[in-house]
């Protein structure tokens, strides 16, 4: 998650969001019993311990900075994992020039495709690169330490790796793509550009609307923290409110308490979902932006929980099966 955030906290907007949230909760309480919906919906048999094994395996690589040996090793791991599960894996290569370096850096998005013949699709996505240094450390010496970024980087990948083991068991009526964005964390200076991978993906998607139509996207960012809380992220609500309602309603039905349907995020977060929304793909962000180890050397597997990932994955498993 980047620290370039637009702090759009206005008094009138906050009052409007509070009123909207109250109406949203009234709607939730009036919903029908989930058993009256699709009787073929399959619960996702997500294994928390296995997801933590994946997370640790990723962190054992070390730093995974865009263009580095570490991120190449991670790509090999991801490709091998999903191809063994029968998914189609596409590597979307491109180059990006960061303002502060002035040099082209090779980057690669990874697109994992399930049910590839279906035109209408949804996206579950995460960035998979790490920040070059831990910029939130107050001690300048610590900023040069090895930053493995367990929750902010590895968690989204680990969750989708474990979810991928069960995708063929789900009754999906639409296509599903897992997308891993490169270049989200490739930032050296506050004025640098952000979201290289998601911007590139959105541009490419616009070129291919005849064969693929992306209906919606859910971004996963810092989804493994112990005691994580996922309030409704403000930009997600304004840009893709219907998707927010679907996802948080599903969490409410499944009694996944980490999703806080009574709360909005303290700030409006700019993240990879910003680039997708700007590119015409309605997208939301499931994010624990109060994670206290964000961009610190202490963001290690010990701060993460497979149970947290399992809760998020179960919501997504039900949500994608309800897409028509």
- Treating each run of at least 4 consecutive H or I residues as one helix, how many helices? 8
Name of the CATH superfamily: Zn peptidases
Structural class: alpha/beta
Number of discrete domains: 1
Mean pLDDT score, rounded? 91
Strand content: 15-25%
What strand line-up does the widest sheet have? Answer: 1-2-4-3-5-8
Question: Care to describe what's here?
Answer:
The chain has 324 residues and is an alpha/beta fold. The protein has a single domain (31-321), classed as Zn peptidases (Aminopeptidase, 3-Layer(aba) Sandwich), CATH 3.40.630.10. Helix content is 36%, strand content 18%. The chain has eight helices and eight strands. A six-stranded mixed sheet has the order 1-2-4-3-5-8. Strands 6-7 form a two-stranded parallel ribbon. Helix 2 (48-59) crosses helix 8, helix 5 packs parallel to helix 7 (272-278) and helix 6 (234-254) packs across helix 8. It is globular. The relative contact order is 0.20. Residues 3-15 and 29-39 have low confidence and may be disordered.
Descriptive terms for the model:
Aminopeptidase, 8 helices, 8 strands, 36% helix, globular
Question: Helix and strand layout, with pairings?
Answer:
Elements: H1 11-29, H2 48-59, H3 69-84, E1 88-97, E2 104-114, E3 120-127, H4 150-164, E4 175-181, H5 196-206, E5 213-221, E6 230-232, H6 234-254, E7 259-264, H7 272-278, E8 283-287, H8 306-321
Parallel strand pairs: 3-4, 3-5, 5-8, 6-7
Antiparallel strand pairs: 1-2, 2-4
């Amino acid at each position: 998650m980047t620290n370039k955030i637009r702090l759009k906290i206005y008094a009138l907007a906050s009052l409007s969001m509070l009123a909207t949230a109250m109406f949203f909760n009234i709607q939730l309480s009036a919903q029908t019993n989930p058993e009256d919906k699709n009787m073929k919906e399959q619960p996702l048999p997500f294994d928390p311990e296995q997801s933590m094994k994946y997370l640790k395996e990723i962190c054992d690589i070390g730093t995974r900075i865009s263009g580095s040996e570490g991120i190449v090793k991670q790509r090999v791991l991801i490709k091998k994992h999903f191809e063994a599960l029968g998914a189609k894996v596409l590597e979307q290569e491109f180059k990006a020039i960061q303002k502060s370096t002035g040099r082209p850096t090779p980057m690669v998005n990874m697109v994992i495709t399930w049910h590839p013949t279906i035109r209408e699709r949804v996206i579950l996505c995460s960035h998979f690169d790490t920040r070059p240094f831990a910029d939130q450390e107050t001690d300048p010496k610590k900023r040069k330490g090895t930053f493995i970024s367990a929750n902010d980087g590895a968690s989204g990948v680990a969750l989708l790796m474990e979810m991928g083991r069960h995708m063929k068991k789900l009754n999906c009526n639409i296509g599903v793509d897992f997308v891993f964005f490169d270049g989200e964390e490739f930032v050296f200076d506050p004025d640098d550009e952000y979201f290289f991978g998601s911007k590139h993906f959105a541009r490419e998607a616009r070129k291919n609307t005849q064969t693929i139509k992306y209906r919606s996207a859910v971004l996963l960012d810092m989804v493994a923290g112990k005691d994580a809380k996922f309030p409704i992220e403000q930009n997600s609500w304004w840009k893709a409110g219907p998707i927010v309602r679907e996802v948080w309603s599903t969490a409410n039905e499944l009694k996944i308490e980490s999703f806080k349907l009574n709360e909005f995020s303290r700030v409006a977060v700019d993240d990879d979902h910003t680039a997708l929304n700007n590119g015409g793909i309605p997208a939301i962000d499931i994010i624990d932006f109060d994670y206290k180890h964000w961009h610190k050397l202490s963001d290690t597997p010990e701060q993460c929980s497979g149970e947290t990932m399992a809760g998020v994955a179960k919501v997504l498993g039900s949500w994608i099966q309800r897409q028509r």
